[in-house]
Amino acid sequence: MPVTPIRRQYLKIKDAYRDSIVLFRMGDFYETFDDDAQLVARELEITLTSRNLGKNLRVPMAGVPAHSVDSYLARLVKKGHQVAVCEQLSDPATSKGLVDRDVVRVVTPGTVFEDSLLDQRSNNYLAAVAVDGEHAGLAYADITTGEFAATQFPLEQLPLELGRVGPAEVLVAGDSADIVNTGDSAWTATPLEDAAFEHRRAESALLTWFGIHTLESFGCEGLPLAVAAAGAIVGYLDRTRKGTRVQLNNLAVYSAQQYMALDSRTRRNLELFEGGRGEQRELSVLAAIDRTRTVMGSRLLRRWLGQPLLDLAALQQRLDAVDCFFGDGLTRGAVASALAGVPDMERIMGRVVAGSASPRELLALKVGLEALPELKDQVSGLGTAMHWLHRELVPAPEAVALIEAAIDPEPSGGVGEGNVIRRGFSETIDELKDASVDARRYIAGLELKERERTGIRSLKVGYNQVFGYYIEVSKSQADGLPDDYIRRQTLTNAERYIVPELKEYESRVLNAREQMASEEEAVYRRVCSQIAESAALIGRSGAAVAQVDVFCGQAQAAVDNGYVRPTVDEGTVIRIRDGRHPVVERVLNYGEYVPNDVELSREARVVVLTGPNMAGKSTYIRQVALITLLAQVGSFVPAAEARIGLVDRIFTRVGLQDDLATGQSTFMVEMVETAAILNQATPRSLVILDEIGRGTSTYDGLSIARSVIEHLHNDPRLGCKTLFATHYHELTQLAASLPGVRNFSVAVTEEGNEVVFLHRIVPGGADKSYGVHVARLAGLPQGVINRAWEVLTDLESHSDRGNRRQTGASPSQQLALFDTGSDLADALRALDVPNMTPLEALNKLYELQEQANSPP
Known about the structure:
Largest sheet: 6 strands, mixed
Strand order of the largest sheet: 3-4-2-1-5-6
Strand content: 15-25%
Structural class: alpha/beta
């Protein structure tokens, strides 16, 4: 079927980018066609039109304005789409025939570069995963900051490490895409051909990228999967960036064992980055501790919060740095002031290297570089503990001097319009500016000169983009004009002319403008290239500035909030005095938060916490986890005193939720998460369990809850530190038979029909949940509350009578779960609990329950 030339051009380009949406530049719009158009119209909620592009061929179209394309790009990329941007490469005004077009970049979630498409306070990682048998390699890069890292580990650790990194896009071999598509993953999986991960090809790509002969300096020996993943990233960048330089620092090889593992549930349950029902950032732990002054520092703090350290030496170094700022208020204030004007040096340098930095970004970079000597001096004054960071702050006076000399302090317009390069930096540009000014000055004076020559006072000189400069007179005065007036255009009431002299000066202006555009663009590129030569040095200093910002900010948060330096060691004890929840105390009035203590050790490793709803059980167990986590981030903590034995992982099982997409009920989700904890925890782990067994019947739930506590306590693989909040008051009896279990409860006082929650954690168990009281506080209708009291009284009465009939005991006596001399007790003693599977344990519990319920 015959098609138009532009249709053929589009189809050829689309064929090369089948997996991408092609934005095809046509004048002032980027157009999409065919299936792309239907997709874009749906995703962006814009009008779907059509156009004839061949004989009897009407093609669907959807377009967006070129001047606002970034906002549309952002929406498409956030939805996980790849977008190939096809530009006009020749000037439509001078092109003979079809305008040359080609794709200049492919924008994907992991290769976004533009500020308007990025979250300034979060890294935007492109990751790659290489898999071979039971092992995996992971590499990730942030092309906006230059960070580039790789590692290798057992395949089972991949979900945790991907969750820690939190990439925007993950590259994976086509036949293993399902490996990275976990149920709660927020990243886009991009399948590549298997050859992209071939070791020799990946190694060659890395050597070419960095211009080196061996990877030995990166420490990649014996890590073929890490090399394969890293090589896949640079190969992908070559294809998507279309030859544009991208800043990547030297490849940093690390071990996943350097960091505490935090699964997505734990990050969510502890509300590290988003809190509240609406996932509000201002109610997150990050918001509670963030006092950074730069976006670089904010990104770094977020990264550290998501990857607590297991390296004690590195932890002590961070804590020492915060302590230095904490103890020196004058330096802290001076550094905070110096940081206030520092821009995002890391991302600006990324754009400088890529050749896309604006003049104002260069001026902002200069401001950041000018702050380095002051920051270096201030850090030097903090003592020897900060010498390691002092060395990383390396001023770049040559770059500062270059920007100062080359860039006009008030640049206006785009590069090439003559208002970017500072006067005195380029003799050629200065001459072109002078020539243009002289010509414009002559043209401006021509109007007065011609009025005097012709005697026409209404004569005026103007400019039109189509016809250029002209002399305009009204039609009534057009007779008798000088012979050198040449008519150019006729209007309704006026005539427009040129004269040879005007044409000559117009030519000078236009030639100067063209030469100015070419010369200023060339000079500006050279300036950016010279600054890019210092990219590694400036990047190193930018990373150091971010660390200074985090340490200074953490010290300020400690001063503002009354945090203390924790003692972190290799021991097995977690001891916290007057601990507080960092977020909850922020939303309360000063002095309202009730602090509490905790001590977990090998001898007291399981705390069974009982007490009423709304009394603070969940807040208490989470604050212990958060204080532990913050200590291993290198932060001061909300407590009067804290000693933290290194924790390798924090597990949480909190709240009720289902997973309808996979057909899992609330209780099934609860059991799956609990099973994951029991199968993965170690003696070094901290386990937070809230209301295990509440998703099923009372007896089933109680049986499971008790079995879980016994397993955590008895299994030699575990023995982990555990906080177990529950409404099953019967579980408090476990302390009598399990030496590592301790009972605590939330103190309550009753005044008539009123209940006062004291929020104080005290030794011993609770015997009431006060659920009806909480229902009243929640605003249930009074009739419902009154009926609930009646039902509760009746149930408690029947329960007491049943207990007396079965045991002969009075209601006030403490009842054992089982008669220690019964057959049931003998059967329990005979169980080999440590070696039973969870299913065997559940089946046995069911048998024992049936036996207990059978009539004698």
